[in-house]
Structure formats: C-alpha cells, structure tokens
C-alpha cells in the first residue's frame, strides 16, 4: 500500500545537509574551531608520514603501518570536513545524490580500513613482545605490504557492495538529511523503496570489519599483557609496555568514539548529541592520533626534536 502512494512521487536528485542549523548563532565559532582542527589533523598526520619516510631508522613494520594510518586519516577528514565547513559558513547545504553516495562510500571504506589497520598493528605488537626472537622472520617486508594492501582492498570492496545496493534505492523525499555528512542510516531513512536487503548486507559487512578486528585486538593485548606480567624486571615490563602504549591509546580512542556513537540508544539521545558524538571519530580521533604518537613514542619524539633543532632527521 505504501508503495502505491510513492508511485506518483518524483525521485529527488540532491539532498540538503542540515549541519548544525539548531545552533546557527555559533556558526563563526564552529567554523573557526573545525577549520583549526582540520589543519592540525592534516599537518600532524602529514608530518608523521614525512618523518617516517625520511628517517631510515624508522623503516620498520611498526612505522610502516603508522604511515598507512596517518595517510588514511588525512583522506578520512578531507572527505567530510571541507563540505561541513561550507555548510556552516556559506550555507552551501545541497549535495547531489551521487556526491552523497560517494562521500558515504569513502567514509565507510576508510573507517573500515582503519579498523583492520589497527588490528594489524596489534598483531605486530603481539609478535614484537610475545615472539621477539622470531619477529624479524615472521614480520617481513612482503608480509607487511600484503597486510596493509589487503586491509585497504578488502574494506573498499566490502563497502562497494553496500554502495551498489544504496545506488539502486529510490529517494523520493523529504530531501533533508539532519546530519553534517552522508551517513548510512540517514540515507536509508529517506528511501521510498524496500531497504531490508541493503540494511542486512550493510549490518553484516560493518560488523565483520569492526567486531572481528576488535576481537583480534583484544586477543592480542590479552597475550601481550600476560607476557609483560611474566617479565621479572620492572624496567623490562615498562619498556615492553611502552612499545605498544601509543597504539593501545589509539585503539581505545577510536573504538571508544565508535561505541559512543553507534551503541547509544537513539531513543535516549537527541540528534544534536548524536552529531556531537559523530564529531569524535570524524575530527577528534584523526587529530589526536599524531599527537599520541608524537608525545608517547620515543622514536618519533626524538626524530621530531632532531628535525626541529635543525639536526639530521636521524635517531641518536
């Protein structure tokens, strides 16, 4: 019956992103804040990439995966923040259906890739601490490349499945998305065709690329913690833990923001609150990742200090 009522409606060709219209009086403040966050995110992650690339002492698996993660963060925020800034300051809220689907595709693919890269980095930490003698044999250069490339390729292909299903939906209105970017749920709710298959596939793929890596990370750090506790020397335990402390902090921040956004019951939270929690993993997490590695990682910290002091960018 509902399909009959939609038959005479015209499919829309563009969406209107609501942004933060409910707090429009703070537009200038929001624009300046998000613009500064975006610049810090881009510059911080690019700096990490350059430090690792031009310092041959950092050409090891741990920093190879870090370069992949920092490169990802730059594109992750660039996919969302520039359009959000235009919405805030210039009221350019319209986005074509194709552009909206493309934004969702890159957002979903990059977020999923980050989950897998964090799992790969936890596996690297596990081998470094639990299998130190076999580490150079197990974590070889070709394996690092395969793990990183596999993470990128797998997630982009999986998200493409959801993307194809979304592109086959018909959107009849209303055309306004009460969000600052094209996320999956707001898009599906605007469709006037059956979305059950799309939602099922999206749920299955998103669960696979978030929960499976999370369980692998949990298993890796359980083994790491057990290995650290078996070290008799307090100094040895401290040194072993410092090897993975930066990555563990990143995992906590990333998954903490995802849980805060997607596991909080929507009935008990306002849309403004959900937008705020979405800002955590679209802006805050990419911005703090280079800060975490700069301040908590001795190698990066030393290389950065040497570069700032105009010394050769080499570790002492």
Any key phrases for this structure?
single chain; 316 residues; mainly alpha; 3-stranded mixed sheet
Commentary on this structure:
- Helix content is 73%, strand content 3%.
- The protein is mostly helical and 316 residues long.
- It contains 12 helices and 3 strands.
- It has a 3-stranded mixed β-sheet with strand order 2-1-3.
- The protein has helices at 2-6, 27-53, 61-78, 81-90, 97-130, 135-138, 141-167, 184-189, 196-229, 234-262, 271-296, 298-308; strands at residues 14-17, 94-96, 176-177.
- Helix 2 runs parallel beside helix 11.
- Residues 1-8 have low confidence and may be disordered.
- The longest helix has 34 residues, at 97-130.
What's the short story on this structure?
The chain is an all-alpha fold and 316 residues long. Helices cover 73% and strands 3% of the residues.
Q: How are the secondary structure elements laid out?
A:
Blueprint: H1 2-6, E1 14-17, H2 27-53, H3 61-78, H4 81-90, E2 94-96, H5 97-130, H6 135-138, H7 141-167, E3 176-177, H8 184-189, H9 196-229, H10 234-262, H11 271-296, H12 298-308
Parallel strand pairs: 1-3
Antiparallel strand pairs: 1-2
Helix pairs in contact: 2-3, 2-4, 2-11, 3-5, 3-11, 5-7, 5-9, 5-10, 7-9, 9-10, 10-11, 11-12
Radius of gyration: 22 Å
Assembly level: single chain
Strand content: under 5%
Shape: globular
